[in-house]
Amino acid sequence: MEKIWLVWFALAILCVIGEIFTTGFFLLWFGIGAAVTGVLALLGVGPIVQFAVFVVLSGILFASTRKLADRITGTQPPGVGADRFVNKPGVVIVEIDPKKNTGRVRVDYDEWRAESESGEVIPEGTPIFVIGIEGTHLIVQKREEK
Question: Which end of the chain is less congested by CB atoms within 10 angstroms, N or C?
Answer without folding.
Answer: C
